[in-house]
Amino acid sequence: MTDSQIIREIKDGNVELFAELMNRYQRKLLSFIFHMLKSSQLELLAEDLCAETFFKAYRSLNTFREAEASFSTWLYTIARNTVLSELRKQRSVQVSLDDDYSIVPEAPREAAPEYALLRNEKVSLVRDAINRLPEKQRSALILREYDQLDYQEIANALGQTVSSVKSLLFRARASVKSQLEAYITEPGVEGMN
């Protein structure tokens, strides 16, 4: 069944089918929310905000108009607004710069430690560069690169035009590249790609 068919069935009273929509989008939505929260070190809230997003979507499903946007775009918009609302609430909470709650992925046992260390460092540098982007650029880049949405879906989710999204992505990529140039040209790191 397509999203549209499932939504029609849910609106006709078959509410159990909402679980199918959740199964379809939960992993990507959780990833999107996690990346939006990363810059504020609030990743632990990702699952709660994902659940809140689905709750809001379910509660508002009767207001969803397929002619205006696809279900996925509508869902990402709800998620984005939920995250932004949480970030506004959290602004008053001060996070100590001495506390390091970042999650460092474990290196595979068969990988040489120095390569794993360099890879983790590169991942961390890229993540930090993305997290320093302005909110709209960061959201556009995450939706495009991590969630693989097309330009129109990103435009709908962010309330922008397609040309604005392309501009946001261009500026975001240029900013990340310029932030990482010092590390890319370092001797010894370049050959480790």
Automatic annotation (TrEMBL):
Domain RNA polymerase sigma-70 region as annotated: residue spans:
21-91
Keywords from the named record: DNA-binding, Sigma factor, Transcription, Transcription regulation
Which GO BP terms, alphabetically? DNA-templated transcription initiation
**Record-annotated RNA polymerase sigma factor 70 region 4 type domain positions:** 126-174
> What Pfam families does the record point to?
Sigma70_r2, Sigma70_r4_2
* Entries under InterPro entries matching the protein: RNA_pol_sigma-70-like, RNA_pol_sigma-70_dom, RNA_pol_sigma70_r2, RNA_pol_sigma70_r4_t2, RNA_pol_sigma_r2, RNA_pol_sigma_r3/r4-like, WH-like_DNA-bd_sf
Report a single Gene Ontology molecular function.
sigma factor activity
Q: Does the keyword Transferase apply?
A: no
Q: What is this protein called?
A: ECF subfamily RNA polymerase sigma-24 subunit
Q: Which family does it belong to?
A: Belongs to the sigma-70 factor family. ECF subfamily.
